[in-house]
Design a protein that fits this description.
InterPro entries: MdtA-like_BSH, MFP, NHPM_bacteriocin_SS_HylD
Radius of gyration: 55 Å
Protein name: NHLM bacteriocin system secretion protein
CATH architecture of one domain: Beta Barrel
Number of helices: 10
Helix content: 40-55%
CATH class of one domain: Mainly Beta
Family: Belongs to the membrane fusion protein (MFP) (TC 8.A.1) family.
Mean pLDDT: 82
Strand content: 15-25%
Pfam families: BSH_RND
Strand order of the largest sheet: 1-10-13-12-11-14
Low-confidence stretches: 1-9
Shape: rod-shaped
Largest sheet: 6 strands, antiparallel, barrel
CATH topology of one domain: Elongation Factor Tu (Ef-tu), domain 3
Keywords: Coiled coil, Membrane, Transmembrane, Transmembrane helix
Length: 422
Amino acid sequence: MVREESQKLFRKEALIHLTTPEQLNKAITITGSKSWLLLLTLTVTMVLVIVWSILGKINTRVEGDGIILSDIEGIYNAVAPKGAGEVERILVKPGDTVKAGQLVMTFNNLYLQNQIVVAQQALAELQQKNKEMSAEAKIGIANRHKDLITQNTILENIITQQNENLIHAQELLTIRQDAFKRGLITRQEVVSSWQQYYDIRKNIEDARKEISQNLINEKNYVESWADKLRSIDLKIKDKKEELDSLISQLKTGKNVYSPITGRVTNIQVKLGDMAKEGTPVLSLSPLDINLEVIAYVPINQGKKIKKGMITMVTPGTIKKEEYGSIIGYVDYVAPYPATSESMNAVLKNEDLVKKLIENPTMEIRVNLQKDPTTFSGFKWSSSEGPPQKITAGTMVEVSTIVRKQAPVTLIIPGLKKLFGSY
């Protein structure tokens, strides 16, 4: 019954086609030759990617900014001499090479000139006072000596007279003592003679003491004037030394000399400008015998940098795409963050410090690898470098390789994180 119903639902030809498959004697084509080539390419690519991910290296870099300086020190400043002064002459220009101690600028030093005038006036007053005191001392000593002679002459006369009186008193005393023994006079008369005798002797002693004291007083008077004159002589000597020092400072203080043998990089003043003592008036960099890079990198990344790491140094004056970078090696890593004071101590340039310390940084120093075959004298990452010299004072960008790792090590943590979330 069921079979009959199915035959009614489908045509007989269709049922025969289904039960008798066609083309069983033909081979099945799975892929064409182009597909095989594509598959092979993909396979090779995958193998290369896997090999590269295992054997290849990806560099992790820390970037920063810096400046090329001589390894002797940073940028040096010649400063205005002692006291305020007016720029009188400028004897050099930027780019000039100068020797240590070479005269580079002169000042009209008004401060020292005024100090010299004041010192000269003070010296003249002291010398005049010394002259007046010497004259006064001469007159005073002469008058005192004259008075001394007068007083002592009187005293000598008194002594002479008293000596005569003493002889008479002694004779009288002898007579009365004899008379007293014979009962001719009273004891009181003898005592009176003794008293007279001793009074005369005392008068003589007092006169002699007064003569001695007068001599001592004269000596003290002379010495007091000598002390006064010595004191003012010392003041005159000190003032002369001060004046000589000021004159010497004026001779040397009006001149500005180069503190180093180097190259003039900047002149901060012009003719007629006033400059205070110690103001930088001219900047110099040491000659480019040994150059190094002082660079500042972000503090959070700088801790990864170690001594000896490769650093690519790109001067701001050349095209990196064309000439590449100078190859260098980290020679020093500061243990503490950089401060404006520490940076200024190295760079000696406040404007540059302000530019480099916009964000927290730490200092590194990079030695540049030399190559005598290049025009610049340094080894470059590509080509022979630019046809120009690299000099101190050139701003640079630095890129330090802090880690080399296989690409797969970067992928695995991501995969772990991805699959670990399921």
